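Q: What residues go here?
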């Protein structure tokens, strides 16, 4: 199977799950600005309790449970989408082998897979707080894991966009032959 087909598989599955999660999370976002992400980044038991209380009052806590369940499938897929995106962009037509960008891509392609255990730890902490009530430890664990996950996603996305924009700029500035 070619790299492009593998990437397409993970891109399609990631997009399907992302759209599904956005729909599931919509009732949460209607009650709490930021929805599930606000809960992931609550960091304190007081903030997590405030979010959970507002969801309970609005009757949308079940949406949070379903979202965390669907996210288990998503966390197994989206890191591989990013990894294969980096792998495709590390080809010689995009980056020079051994260059700083290529080496950074190699590191990011491996590091972005850490999103899976980070997201799993975050989901576990969020689930426990729904079931047993917020605690400082669980809120901090979820916040730190989510922050590291989002940082890895942002840096990897930035690397991909940088490589693509460099490629597009070099293609558009090349003299035409013909």
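A:
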């Amino acid at each position: 199977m070619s790299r492009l087909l593998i990437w397409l598989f993970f891109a399609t599955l990631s997009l399907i799950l992302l759209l599904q999660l956005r729909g599931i999370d919509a009732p949460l976002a209607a009650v709490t600005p930021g929805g599930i992400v606000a809960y992931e980044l609550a960091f304190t038991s007081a903030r997590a309790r405030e979010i959970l209380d507002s969801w309970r009052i609005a009757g949308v806590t079940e949406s949070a449970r379903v979202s965390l369940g669907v996210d288990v499938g998503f966390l197994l897929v989206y890191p591989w989408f990013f990894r294969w995106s980096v792998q495709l962009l590390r080809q010689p037509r995009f980056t020079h082998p051994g260059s700083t960008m290529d080496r950074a891509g190699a590191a990011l392609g491996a590091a972005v897979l850490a999103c899976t255990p980070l997201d799993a730890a975050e989901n576990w902490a969020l689930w426990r707080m729904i079931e047993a009530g917020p605690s400082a430890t669980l809120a901090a664990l979820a916040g730190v894991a989510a922050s590291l996950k989002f940082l890895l996603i942002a840096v990897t996305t930035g690397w991909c966009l940088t490589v693509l924009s460099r490629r597009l700029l070099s293609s558009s500035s090349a003299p035409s032959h013909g």
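A: Context that may help when evaluating the design: The chain has a mean pLDDT of 94. Helices lie at 3-31, 35-40, 45-58, 61-75, 78-89, 100-111, 115-132, 136-173.
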